[in-house]
Design goal:
Strand order of the largest sheet: 4-3-9-10
Number of strands: 15
Strand content: 5-15%
Order of helices and strands: EEEHEHHHEEEEHEHEEEHHEHHHHHHHEE
Helix content: 40-55%
Oligomer: single chain
Number of helices: 15
Structural class: alpha/beta
Largest sheet: 4 strands, parallel
Radius of gyration: 25 Å
Shape: elongated
Length: 471
């Protein structure tokens, strides 16, 4: 079964297919490294990670390219404030980003190019666009893309070109902090930015004078270098749909003559406790800040995938507590199954490696079908818990299927167990108590609860199960 996703370009679910050589090229807009990434950034990156893992399970040979934006207004401004080189400044935050990715169990991309290391490719594309009449130089040494030469502009985001006067607001309704450079029309965008005094030493030579690349051109140049003129999928947050991705399509098609990507994958925004993320609200949480509050990276990952990627997610601290409970329940359930089948935890972990052995006929077939249907993670998780709640006889093949679902979701259900290990005796008593309660033997259930309390553990009943916590 090939996964399907909602293609922003076609506005319907499309079946994903690799190219003629079996390669599935996947380009994802990466971080701008001027500070720590926040959970809103990671919602998008983790959705892309789940998509990649799902494709791998489907047998695709994924070539994942994710760029690093290490030169723009923000990186230059902040590095100069600190009096250090752009490279020293950005590498620090790039390292921090990689550290957080590792903690969140994200797969590293196949290639991770930096914008500053691909100036040559960007200049070549800008020159091509100028030569073909799709771009024009300005008197300050900047070069602009001429929107009027590309009639298809606006197709991805659904914008009406005749009524588009500016690129001051993106597709999420946020103000774009673009430089104010000379241009023929307000909607034309910069491919190359002429050097300004505040840029300091951060400039490169070009046919139009010293300057630096515009933000949009780097992705077109680097995706072309590592994936070719046309590849399979391009991903990013919904805020990048316009103008960034719209501009990428325009400049790439005008330079190469072919669309850069067949499928476009966009993730919705994140709310925090019902409010938009904002510095003024103090809710631009980083992973470190949440860890300091007592939550594990795996709980954060679970919370970030708990909603459908195309729907706005309200990230809450209650959601993090629910994530903790869900992970603990999954661990208890599979440990019980493993004991019955005589499989060790170490052997089970060998199943969580992304090598699909087939889901058909297993207890987790429904979960796999949900993932293949527009990456419906909430439904997939519902199918997982439903499979365990039936308490049927699990086979080794079922266990392998569950391991593959965990791989697709990137969930390590044993990651937090060392710091919160629940003794086997306590787990057994809690299971016995839950069975007694379901059979309405409340006297036995109460006596088992007291035994657990005497051992220093509390049992908190929920609608579909229970949690075990230290007293």
């Amino acid at each position: 079964m090939n996964p399907r996703i909602n293609n922003t370009l076609t506005r319907h679910k499309d079946e994903l297919r690799p190219d003629g050589e079996g390669i599935f090229g996947m380009y994802c807009c990466g971080p701008t490294v001027y500070g720590p990434a926040h959970i809103g950034n990671f919602r998008t990156f983790i959705a892309q990670d789940v998509l990649r893992r799902t494709l791998e399970l489907a047998g695709f040979n994924v070539r994942h390219v994710r760029n690093i934006t290490d030169v723009d207004d923000k990186t230059i401004r902040e590095s100069r404030k600190l009096g250090i080189s752009l490279k020293e400044f950005t590498r620090k935050w790039e390292d921090k980003f990689h550290e957080d990715c590792l903690k969140l169990n994200m797969l590293p991309p196949s290639v991770e190019p930096r914008a500053t290391e691909h100036i040559k490719e960007q200049l070549e594309m800008v020159s091509t666009l100028v030569d073909k009449g799709h771009a024009y130089p300005a008197s300050d040494g900047s070069v602009y893309f001429k929107i009027s030469t590309f009639p298809e502009y606006g197709r991805l985001s659904g914008l009406d070109l005749e009524h588009l006067d500016t690129q001051a607001v993106n597709s999420a309704g946020e103000v774009n902090s673009a430089d104010e450079y000379e241009r023929e029309r307000v909607m034309d965008f910069a491919l190359w930015k002429g050097r300004k005094p505040e840029d300091g030493e951060n400039s490169w030579k070009s046919p139009w004078g010293e300057g630096r690349p515009g933000w949009h051109i780097e992705c077109s140049a680097m995706s072309r270098k590592y994936l070719g003129d046309s590849f399979e999928l391009h991903g990013g947050g919904v805020d990048l749909c316009f103008p960034h991705h719209e501009n990428e399509i325009a400049q790439s098609m005008c330079a190469t003559g072919v669309p850069p990507a067949k499928y476009w994958f966009h993730s919705a925004h994140l709310m925090v406790e019902g409010r938009k993320m904002s510095k003024s609200f103090g809710n631009l949480y980083t992973l470190d800040q949440l860890v300091e509050k007592g939550y594990s990276p795996m709980q954060v990952r679970y919370a970030l995938i708990s909603g459908h990627y195309r729907q706005q997610l309200n990230f809450t601290f209650k959601g993090l507590e629910d994530a903790k409970s869900a992970l603990e329940k999954l661990r208890r359930e599979i440990v019980s199954v493993l004991k019955t089948l005589g499989i060790s935890e170490d052997d089970f972990k060998k199943f969580v490696v992304g090598k699909a052995s087939g889901f058909e006929g297993t207890a987790f077939e429904g979960a796999w079908e949900a993932l293949c249907d527009d990456l419906n993670v909430p439904k997939a998780m519902g199918e997982v818990f439903s499979a365990f709640s039936k308490k049927g006889d699990f086979s080794k093949r079922d266990v392998e299927a569950f391991g593959n679902i965990l791989y697709a979701l990137g969930l390590d259900i044993f990651a937090d167990s060392k710091s919160s290990e629940i003794p086997e005796e306590v787990v057994a008593l809690a299971e016995e108590r839950w069975a007694a309660k379901k059979s309405k033997d409340f006297a036995l259930a109460d006596s088992l609860r007291k035994k657990l309390s005497d051992l220093g553990w509390n049992v908190l009943d929920k609608k579909d199960g229970y949690d075990i916590q230290k007293a």
